[in-house]
Amino acid sequence: MTRLLILPLLALAACQANAPDNAANDAVAANQANAPVKDIETLPPDETVVEPENEETAEATGEAHIPDSMQGRWGLVPADCTSTKGDAKGLLTIDGDTLKFYESRAKLTKVVGNWPEKLKAEFAFTGEGQSWTRTETLSLTNSSNTLIREDEELAQPLRYARCK
Asked: Going by DSSP bridges, is the β-strand pair 98-100/158-162 parallel, antiparallel, or unpaired?
């Protein structure tokens, strides 16, 4: 009977002697995790994209130019894009330096911030015998098919759809 008890104990002792030390395995795994990977190429940061810390401290970038992706015809409602009677009051036409509305025009005077799909700039407006300046923010969304226009005078942002 004693032999029957000794045999399993010997087998258990043999397994324990061959089992790796868990603490040693953890240390090896940690060292491997912290080791630099030699097969992955790291690239320098992209210095062409400037993300603002906040919009008030964003620096002007480049010439006073509205990005090509924002240029074109934009309508507040679908009929603004298709009207042939000249009554498209929600139509906004954008070119390289001008915003054209139904009864006013805005000439770009200063770029405050220019980021991918977003422009914050000062514009000199004229219309209906008056002149004023205003800072406008133009943002593209929906695969560049929606333009959101914001300024301090608007109660809420205006959403324009790209005319086709």
From this structure: unpaired
